[in-house]
Write a structure and sequence with these properties.
With 233 residues, this protein is of the alpha+beta class. The chain has helices spanning 7-28, 213-218, 222-230, and strands at 78-106, 124-156, 162-172, 175-185, 195-197, 201-212. The protein starts with 6 loop residues before the first helix and ends with a helix.
């Protein structure tokens, strides 16, 4: 008589099996990482203003220029990044090799043999060779990315350049779109309105990924990935 597994044990076994399949899928089909600067958000350090009791109207710790252009320059400041990245690369190559050769030899007479023994091409030798090769290759890659994200200054370098990093998450129903950005900005490239174009940022790292059913549908299942790895063709 067959033994029936209790419902609780069956549910637990199914959950463990699903977790194991998910781990196998992540191991056999990992997502390529993007080295985005961390952390993607940082608070400005608190400024401790020493108490001043000199009775003057002007206080150094509370001074703010009247016509100051509010641009990011300190840790914790934010600025808007206009992401416009377009990269196109094309490579073509063509090669051909053609080589041919020929060889001919003949004997008209040998001492001690009758002359008619070499008539009608009986002692003629001929050989020809030909080698032809042709090859052609073409590679084309195009990448177009545009968007807007507000990043936070996470570090100020000794030369005054700003290391910025930002993250944006948008969740709709069962899907989450994640956009991460990081780079190094020269403060002189920051335009009016506290914005900068991504083409003027060094060491740009952009990552856009999704979490949810749509992202899972983009990957090959662990069983299909297994057969792709073990099949010889």
């Amino acid at each position: 008589m067959a033994r029936v597994m209790p419902p609780r044990r069956a549910v637990a076994a199914a959950a463990l099996w699903l977790c194991g399949c998910a781990n196998i899928n992540e191991t056999m089909n990992p997502r390529p990482p993007v080295d985005v600067a961390q952390p993607t958000q940082l608070r400005a350090p608190p400024i401790v203003v020493p108490p001043v009791s000199n009775g003057a109207i002007f206080q150094t710790g509370q001074y703010r220029p009247l016509f100051e252009d509010h641009r990011a320059r300190l840790v914790g400041d934010t600025l808007t990044v206009q992401i416009v990245e377009k990269v196109t690369a094309t490579q073509k190559s063509t090669s051909s090799i053609d080589k041919s050769g020929g060889l001919a030899a003949g004997v008209t007479a040998i001492p001690g043999l009758a002359g008619n023994s070499f008539t009608a091409g009986r002692a003629n030798i001929g050989a020809t060779s030909s080698n032809t090769f042709a090859g052609k290759g073409s590679t084309e890659n195009s990448n177009d990315f545009s968007g807007t994200i507000t990043a936070t200054v996470i570090e100020v370098l000794p030369n005054g350049h700003l290391i910025v990093s930002g993250e944006k998450q948008i969740g709709v129903n069962h899907n989450v779109d994640v956009l991460r950005f990081s780079g190094q900005i020269d403060p002189r490239a920051i335009q009016a309105g506290n914005s900068v174009a991504s083409a003027q940022i060094a060491n740009v790292r952009i990552e856009q990924r999704g979490r949810g059913a749509q992202a899972d549908a983009q990957g090959i299942g662990w069983l299909g990935r297994f057969f792709l790895n073990v099949l010889p063709v």
